Amino acid sequence: MKMIYNFFTSILFLLSAVNSPVTITTNTKTVSETKAAPLIAEATTVATASGVYNQLDANSLSLPDYESFERAFEGYILLKEQGKIKKDLLTLVDFSKSSNTKRLWIIDMSTKTVLYNTLVAHGRNSGNEFATAFSNAANSNKSSLGFYATGEVYIGKHGTSLRLDGLEKGINSNARSRAVVIHGADYVSEGFIKQHKRLGRSLGCPALPNRISKEVIDLIKGKSCLFIYHPSKNYVSTSKLVS
């Protein structure tokens, strides 16, 4: 009987030894598949410029052109990752368009909704109806292209104004020292356009209509993203935020 007992004990031990690796392998696969699932889900939800653009809610306003939005989105994502902007707001200015048109958009990127679409001025030495020349130099009275982080609010000669920090060296990095800010102005209005056949111009500031300037400033202050676009080959070749 002892021999029979030892025989069956040996058989059970061998079966246990054979089965163990199978169980371990099965569990390993299960764990791997569980870990992979969130990664696959995450990969399928990565935002793209075209995907976000196609989901934008114009909110009874107009949408920016895709070309300008694509550039803006590219830099916005990078700056968010770098922590240089904090808010889920993107202000896009398209200086390829006539100053007689509403060429500034404010987009809530969390809800993908256009909040504002309005007139905006360019610098007097950047051009007349269209902006064609840009500079980072002091006293140039020209607009600067590229990405900015909005700063703090102050009261200046134009009333409530918003400081800007240029985030692109050599392109708009002198914005603060040049006092390039967002402010309201009488010359940014439909009435001015009717009288002069074009919008008024600033000393380089992206000036807004007086009637909405304060509410816009209160909305976008404190590290939100501003992008001033123009299809300039020089800008694209110099910028490290767009490709």
Strand content: 15-25%
Low-confidence stretches: 1-45
Ends apart, CA distance between termini: 83 Å
Compute the number of helices.
Answer: 6
Mean pLDDT: 87
Structure overview:
By secondary structure, this protein is α+β, with helices and mostly antiparallel strands. The chain has helices spanning 2-44, 49-55, 66-82, 190-196, 210-220, 233-238; strands at 89-94, 104-108, 113-118, 146-156, 159-166, 181-185, 208-209, 225-229. The protein is built from 6 helices and 8 strands; from the N terminus they run αααββββββαβαβα. A hairpin with a 4-residue loop joins strand 2 (104-108) and strand 3. The model is unreliable at 1-45 (pLDDT under 50). Strands 3-2-1-8-4-5-6-7 form an 8-stranded mixed sheet.
Brief write-up:
The chain has 243 residues and is an alpha+beta fold. It contains six helices and eight strands; from the N terminus they run αααββββββαβαβα. The protein has helices spanning 2-44, 49-55, 66-82, 190-196, 210-220, 233-238; strands at 89-94, 104-108, 113-118, 146-156, 159-166, 181-185, 208-209, 225-229.
Defining key terms:
243 residues; alpha+beta
Secondary-structure topology with pairs:
Blueprint: H1 2-44, H2 49-55, H3 66-82, E1 89-94, E2 104-108, E3 113-118, E4 146-156, E5 159-166, E6 181-185, H4 190-196, E7 208-209, H5 210-220, E8 225-229, H6 233-238
Parallel strand pairs: 1-8, 6-7
Antiparallel strand pairs: 1-2, 2-3, 4-5, 4-8, 5-6
